[in-house]
Each structure stands twice: as structure tokens, then as C-alpha cells.
Amino acid sequence: MQNEFDTIIIGKGPAGVSAALYALRAGLSVLIVAKDAGALSRAHAIANYYGFEEPISGAELERRGEAQAKALGAELYTGEVLDMMFADVFHVRVKGAEGEVEFTSKSVVVAAGSVRSKAPIPGIDAYEGKGVSYCAVCDGFFYRKKNVAVLGNGAYALSEAKELLPLAAQVSICTLGEEPKVEIPAEYSVEKEKIVAIEGDGHVQKIKFASGKEIPVDGIFVAIGTASAADLARKTGAAVQSNKLAVDDKLMTTVPGLFAAGDCLGGILQVAVAVGEGAKAGLAVVEYVRKLRAKEGTAK
Ligand SMILES: Cc1cc2nc3c(=O)[nH]c(=O)nc-3n(C[C@H](O)[C@H](O)[C@H](O)COP(=O)(O)OP(=O)(O)OC[C@H]3O[C@@H](n4cnc5c(N)ncnc54)[C@H](O)[C@@H]3O)c2cc1C
């Protein structure tokens, strides 16, 4: 599989596939990266989407969308997007079955749905911005030579911890009562107990575990489950408001070339809306890439 694309679409739900269809039909090279079938996998019967006299299962609708995108020439890669950054082009780092791989593209559509894994810790929200962060690359700098903890037990948590290791004095990975799903290198201390409280005096100062054990920390980075749309957008510096990506009328975020569509924008969480926004984002990507090519003198 090639590594460079005109656009990378994160998510193979209705928004991502719809965006892909418009980009593909305009001749763009498209990579869809997705870890699974998203919200549709949980929808047993969809009876309010145009064109289906009988209800269709979410799984079948997803299967048809994926097959349609593939038939038009989309590349599909199954994996978890861990990180994304912009430096001349977008760099998207993905953990797939064979390990980590990086793809690059002129544009990205975030269509990663609405799931945000919340930390099951009383009072954590009160410390957001006061020691609790959702983005190591954005906020790690504030914790130089300080003690930080990363909450989570998967590849995304380890990826965030790796970002912090060169900066912080100590990085603890707190798996919240779960076993780690990845091998954690020896340079991290691992706390497997459940957290019962975060304490501080206006700013995070310590984590308290179920056994009564406490560890002093200055910063806590939440990386539970997989990176959400907002987590990924923040890594590029895109504006996020109330955990939703901020976009203009063409569904472009505050980072040029980075678009978003579907449930990750909030509003009405329905297939019809996600498909419509996907179409809008797909068309905007086509316009963006064509302008970029014209500027670079590579117009096709
Ligand atoms: C139980 C249930 C019933 C529903 N019933 C209906 C209904 O009857 N009618 C209706 O219109 N709507 C219904 N919905 C809502 C509908 O499913 C969603 O609005 C729609 O699927 C949103 O599409 P989306 O493409 O924005 O996100 P999703 O369909 O959620 O797709 C998100 C995609 O992003 C991928 N992804 C996320 N994070 C990452 C990452 N870090 N790395 C790689 N991939 C990632 C996921 O794997 C997935 O492929 C229902 C939803 C649920 C949960």
C-alpha cells in the first residue's frame, strides 16, 4: 500500500464513507483509516434513513458503505489512529495489526464519531485545565521536570506517555484497575490500582488509589481507550469547543486542510446528518486539494 494520499479519512462510518465517495469520484487518492464500524455496529435497526422501506441493520449499512468506497478505489486500513500532526503535510500515525505505520496526506477528514472515554474518577472534570489534560503534545511542555501520570491501559496511553517521557521527571501510567493491553517499557512506573480521588489546591497535586496509596503528580493526561476526534484535532492545534471540533461553513477546522464531519461535530447524531456532512466535507476537500495542486503547479 502507498503511504501518501490526497486525503486521509479517519472513520468508516456514514460521515467518513460519504466524504470518501465525493473525494474518490473527483479523482483524489483516498485512504480510510478506521479501528471498527463505529456507532452503526450498535444500531440494530435503522428505520429512518432515506431509501429503505424495511429497517436495515447498522452492521449491514456499514458493510454496504465500506464496499461502495472500496469499489470506487478507496484504500482501507484497519487500525487505531494514535497521533496526527501537520508539518508541510499531515502525518497520521496508526497502530495496525503489524505494528505502527505512518501515512501522509495533503488533507484529513476527521469522521471519528462521538465517543469520548471519560475517566471514571470523581471530581476529575473540576481539574480540567488545572493539571488535567487531554493532549500530551499540546500541554506536555508545561510539565518539564515534573511528575505526570497518564490514565489508560492501551496503545494510545503508551503513545501519550512516550510524548511526555523526554520532558517530565517521571511518567506513571495508571491503568485504573485494568491490566495493560500493551507491553509497557521499564522507564515508566505502572500503577494498576483504581483511582479514588484526585486532590489539589486549585491545581492537581496528588492521586489517591483504592488501597490508600498516594502519589504526588503535577499533571494528569487522560488517554483512556482510543484517541477521540477532539484528542486528534488538538494535536494539530485545531480549536475544540466543548469537546467538539470547531469548523467553518465548509467544515474546515481552524487548521487549513483539516476537515471534520458527522457525530464528532455534535448536533443531531443521525445517519442522515452524518452522510450530509460527509458529502460537504468531501467536496470541500476536493476544492482544497485542487487549489493546493494549482499553487504547487501540479494541477491535474
Ligand atoms: C444504538 C444506536 C442506535 C442508533 N440508531 C440510529 C437510527 O435508528 N437512525 C439514525 O439515523 N442514527 C442512529 N444512530 C446514530 C448513528 O449510528 C450515528 O449518528 C452515525 O453512525 C454517525 O456517523 P459517524 O460517521 O459520524 O460516526 P461513526 O459511525 O460512529 O463512525 C466513527 C468511525 O471512526 C472510527 N474511529 C474513531 N476513533 C478512531 C481512532 N482513534 N482511530 C481509528 N478509527 C477511529 C470508528 O472506528 C468508526 O469507524 C444510532 C446510534 C446508536 C449507538
Draw up the topology in text:
Layout: E1 4-10, H1 14-25, E2 30-34, H2 58-71, E3 75-87, E4 89-96, E5 99-110, E6 132-133, H3 136-139, E7 147-151, H4 155-164, E8 170-174, E9 189-191, E10 195-200, E11 204-209, E12 214-216, E13 219-222, H5 229-236, E14 240-241, E15 244-245, E16 258-260, H6 271-296
Parallel strand pairs: 1-2, 1-5, 2-3, 5-16, 6-13, 7-8, 7-13, 8-9
Antiparallel strand pairs: 3-4, 4-5, 10-11, 11-12, 14-15
Helix pairs in contact: 1-2, 1-6
Flavin-adenine dinucleotide binds at residues 10-16, 33-40, 42-43, 46, 48-49, 58, 80-81, 111-113, 226-227, 262-263, 269-272, 274.
Descriptive terms for the model:
300 residues, globular, FAD/NAD(P)-binding domain, 6 helices, 5-stranded mixed barrel, alpha/beta, binds flavin-adenine dinucleotide, 2 domains, single chain, 29% strand
Describe the structure.
This protein is of the alpha/beta class and 300 residues long. It has two domains: 4-116 and 227-296, FAD/NAD(P)-binding domain (3-Layer(bba) Sandwich); 124-222, FAD/NAD(P)-binding domain (3-Layer(bba) Sandwich). Helices cover 25% and strands 29% of the residues. The protein is built from six helices and 16 strands. The strands form four sheets. It has a five-stranded mixed beta barrel with strand order 1-2-3-4-5, surrounded by four helices. The chain has a five-stranded parallel β-sheet with strand order 6-13-7-8-9, with helices on one face. Strands 10-11-12 form a three-stranded antiparallel β-sheet, with no helix packed on it. A hairpin with a 2-residue loop joins strand 14 (240-241) and strand 15 (244-245). The protein starts with a strand and ends with a helix. Flavin-adenine dinucleotide binds at residues 10-16, 33-40, 42-43, 46, 48-49, 58, 80-81, 111-113, 226-227, 262-263, 269-272, 274.
